[in-house]
Specification:
about 150 residues; mainly alpha; about 0% strand; elongated
Length: about 150
């Protein structure tokens, strides 16, 4: 008598999320930049489901979300005008700008690598990725979604 193992559950197919670039820009502005790390975190599973040599890690996105959230809070509190709070807000802005920009660029270029390894006629450029980050990447994802299964 042969025992057959139960069938493995099928993994649900994950598709790239098409989002109008104008909506991404509006959400970025309304959330005071917090949408950028959210964008990376919400697209991570679908990007990682694509065949690629590298994956999009979760930890840098979470760190970026925490840094941006704290900075927005500090900036909003600094509106009170108290000198100590304004000094902290000024210092933290420089730190967030440096660390945040570095993390966004690392994550953006990782997404670029994943997208360029797909078998589609869409090419994601270095300059577009560097200058426009998630806006450009979302534009390319929208175009690429038509060519992927």
């Amino acid at each position: 008598m042969e025992i057959t193992p139960p069938p493995l559950p099928s993994t649900p197919s994950v598709t790239l999320r098409k989002t109008p670039v104008l909506l991404v820009i509006v959400l970025f502005l309304v959330t005071l930049g917090i949408y950028t790390p959210y964008w990376f975190l919400t697209r991570r599973l679908s990007l990682n489901s694509l065949p690629a040599t590298k994956a999009l890690p979760r930890i840098p996105g979470i760190v970026l979300l925490a840094i941006y959230s704290i900075d927005v809070f500090v900036q909003l509190v600094s509106i009170s005008g108290q000198p100590a709070i304004v000094a902290v807000a000024t210092y933290s802005s420089g730190l967030v700008l440096s660390v945040g920009t570095a993390l966004v660029l690392v994550l953006s270029f990782r997404v670029r690598t994943i997208l360029n390894q797909q078998d589609t006629p869409i090419y994601v450029s270095v300059i577009g990725t560097f200058l426009f980050n998630v806006f450009y990447l979302q534009f390319k994802i929208n175009r690429m979604a038509q060519h992927l299964p």
